[in-house]
Amino acid sequence: MPRIIIDCPTTGAQVPTGHRTQDFALSAVVEPRSFRCPVCHEVHAWKGEDARIEGAEHERASLSAALDSSLPN
Ligand SMILES: [Zn+2]
Prior knowledge:
The chain is of the alpha+beta class. It has one helix at residues 60-70; strands spanning 3-7, 14-20, 33-36, 43-46, 52-53. Strands 2-1-5 form a 3-stranded antiparallel beta sheet, with no helix packed on it. The protein has a two-stranded antiparallel sheet with strand order 3-4. The protein starts with a strand and ends with a helix. Residues 8, 10-11, 15, 37, 39-40, 42, 44 line the site of zinc ion (ZN).
C-alpha cells in the first residue's frame, strides 16, 4: 500500500508520515497531524492538502482515483 508523504519544510526532502493510504482518505485530514520527521528529526504538522501518495507525484489523476476508492461512500 503506498505511503503518505509530505515535503519536509526544513530540508525539502520527501518524507513518509508513517501513514499509508489505507489508513484514511487524505481529503479527510483537515486537522493537522503531527509526526517526527525521519530526515531532520523535528516534529512537523501536516494536513491532507499538504500530503501526497508516494509514487503519484506526477500522476494527479492517480491520486484522485486513490482518494475516491478510499472514501466510504
Ligand atoms: Zn523534516
